[in-house]
Design brief:
Layout (H helix, E strand, L loop, with lengths): L14 H4 L16 E4 L1 H5 L6 H9 L4 E2 H8 L3 H13 L3 E4 L10 H13 L1
Antiparallel strand pairs: 1-2, 1-3
Protein name: DUF742 domain-containing protein
Organism: Frankia nepalensis
Pfam families: DUF742 (PF05331)
Length: 120
């Protein structure tokens, strides 16, 4: 159940409470497709983290995108971006940014690979 919805005993946590009222991540370039992985220190710190933060670190023992984290943990995307950014600043997760345009293979190469796959 999502943390901001009604819980069995009537307890409700609003999304802004999870982020201390913040709506922007400290890592402003944090894209939805950014891959996130847990660090050793993050895994060791799980018991000391808040519930949602611990869930994010556990989930990121395998690479997850920010969008996937939001969906799996059941929190709004904006909240996920802020929490992931906080965890990255604390060294509990590592951000693997998508390649920039100059780092991506050119279209011609991709077309040749696709043609080769279709021919096989």
């Amino acid at each position: 159940m999502a943390p901001w919805r009604g819980r069995p005993h009537g307890f409700v946590v609003r999304p802004y409470i999870l982020t201390g009222g913040r709506t922007e991540p400290s890592h402003r370039e944090l894209a939805l497709e950014t891959l996130v992985s847990a660090t050793t220190s993050g895994i060791e710190a799980i018991r000391m983290l808040e519930h949602e933060e611990a869930a994010i670190v556990r989930l990121c023992e395998t690479y997850q995108s920010v969008a996937e984290i939001a969906a799996h943990v059941g929190i709004p995307l904006g909240v996920a971006r802020v929490l992931v950014s906080d965890l990255a600043s604390a060294g509990h997760v590592r951000l693997h940014r998508p390649p920039t345009t100059s780092e991506r293979p050119d279209g011609q190469l991709l077309r040749r690979v696709l043609h080769g796959l279709r021919s096989a």
